Backbone:
């Protein structure tokens, strides 16, 4: 089954490299829902997410032949989308990474409460974060990059990355608490 | 109490598990944008793009020459009345840009989005010239201007809301204004029906309000501009007599509509000058009339 899937994907990829429109559309339909979810996590709003999605796919299609079939194709594509998101982030780095939530209560959250939240709720929480926090949190907690890598990607120091992550967590915790107090 | 690290890992883990492989419904229009930019059916993407560009130019050229030919023949066939020649000429110059726009099907969605900003808004600016009011003369003569010419910004700083108001000046008075709605104008309206912001390619934007109502109702009681993506900014409010009433380099600092002596500024007209520089751009200056309404 899994083999079958890979074979099918490889066939689509080969056709995409030949610029067959039907295969291109197929690949887009296959990947776009997942990739759009990635874009939404990083983008400031849905418009920006849409732009990232479009830009990312243009890159994917234009660089398909560079995919070396090492590791999963989806992982490769996802990395392109993450990079594109970071490009957008850099471009639109409006608020610098400021400390705006120093007064957040340092309260460790009960993870049971958190686990009751659905994906949609978590997305909302993430999207409510200031952009600097959001990007670092996404990269570290969800994508699993190390602080060293994040520092390079965002062109910040490792310590900034760490403190941003810490603040992001506090921020999220505060939001979750508020939600549950209501 | 669990140790901190463990709690953090749990916390991150919940987000990761829930969101790592999440999906979202893709909004319409994205595929069209993508497919227009990637070139289908050609072996080399670069070649495809080049062809598209070449074709675009060719189509535009053909369209323009067709229009020119037709108008030429019109002029030739009809006995020459001065008015008619005028209108035909006008038509032929004005059709040029719609002709290109008309063939813009090959233009990718991305290209379009990128070009929306400056050039079209510029058209809007040129064509929607309101009657010139005395206030402009005040502006041009204002001796307070810094190193920048006061109107250097007008082409870039296009604020449709403001531009339609009679207070905005323009140097392009020779342009025909009797044409109520030129094609370009129509297009801009469709594209940008209500936007009050000027969008730049890199999503920097500026909005300079033209009125403030310091009546204590909590709405627009103080004057503040909206600016995103700037490197530096300076906001100066002048009275009509050129007296500086307020000056700040902090875009978040609002003018409380008080005169330097602490009195409330009376209702009426003022001028606001904004000197700003977007990241990687040149310094720009713009002056707007500001009305205090009570």
Residues:
């Amino acid at each position: 089954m899994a083999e079958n899937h890979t074979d099918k994907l490889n066939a689509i990829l080969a056709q995409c490299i030949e610029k067959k429109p039907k295969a291109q559309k197929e690949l887009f339909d296959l990947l776009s829902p997942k990739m759009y979810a990635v874009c939404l996590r990083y983008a400031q709003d849905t418009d920006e997410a849409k732009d990232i999605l479009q830009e990312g796919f243009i890159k994917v299609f234009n660089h398909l032949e560079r995919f070396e079939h090492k590791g999963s194709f989806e992982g490769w594509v996802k990395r392109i989308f993450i990079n594109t998101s970071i490009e957008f982030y850099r471009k639109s780095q409006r608020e610098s990474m400021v400390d705006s939530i120093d007064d957040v209560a340092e309260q460790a959250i009960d993870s049971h409460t958190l686990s009751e939240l659905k994906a949609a709720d978590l997305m909302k929480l993430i999207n409510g974060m200031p952009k600097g926090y959001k990007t670092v949190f996404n990269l570290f907690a969800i994508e699993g990059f190390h602080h060293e890598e994040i520092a390079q990607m965002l062109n910040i120091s490792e310590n900034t990355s760490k403190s941003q992550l810490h603040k992001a967590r506090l921020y999220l915790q505060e939001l979750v608490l508020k939600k549950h107090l209501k | 109490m669990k140790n901190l690290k463990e709690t953090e890992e749990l916390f991150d883990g919940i987000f990761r598990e829930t969101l790592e492989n999440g999906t979202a419904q893709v909004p319409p229009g994205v595929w069209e944008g993508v497919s227009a930019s990637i070139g289908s059916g050609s072996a080399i993407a670069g070649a495809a793009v080049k062809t598209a560009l070449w074709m675009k130019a060719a189509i535009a050229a053909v369209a323009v020459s067709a229009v020119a030919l037709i108008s030429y023949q019109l002029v030739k066939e009809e006995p020459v009345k001065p008015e008619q020649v005028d209108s035909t000429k006008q038509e032929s110059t004005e059709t040029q840009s719609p002709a290109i726009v008309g063939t813009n099907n090959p233009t990718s969605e991305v290209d379009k989005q990128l070009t929306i900003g400056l050039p079209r808004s510029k058209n809007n600016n040129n064509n929607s010239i309101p009657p010139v009011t005395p206030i402009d003369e005040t502006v041009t003569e204002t001796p307070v201007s810094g190193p920048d010419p006061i109107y250097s910004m007008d082409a870039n700083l296009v604020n449709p809301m403001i531009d339609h108001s009679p207070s905005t000046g323009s140097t392009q008075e020779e342009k025909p204004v009797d044409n109520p709605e030129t094609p370009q104008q129509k297009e801009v309206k469709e594209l940008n029906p209500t936007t009050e912001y000027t969008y730049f390619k890199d999503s920097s934007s500026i909005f300079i309000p033209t009125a403030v109502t310091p009546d204590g109702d909590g709405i627009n009681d103080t004057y503040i501009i909206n600016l995103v993506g700037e490197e530096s900014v300076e906001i100066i409010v002048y009275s009509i007599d050129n007296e500086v009433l307020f000056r700040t380099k902090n875009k978040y600092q609002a003018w409380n509509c008080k005169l330097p002596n602490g009195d409330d500024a009376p209702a009426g007209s003022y001028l606001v000058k904004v000197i700003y520089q977007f990241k990687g751009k040149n310094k720009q200056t713009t002056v707007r009339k500001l009305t205090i309404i009570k």
Q: What stands out?
A: Residues 6 and 54 of chain A are 25 Å apart (CA to CA).
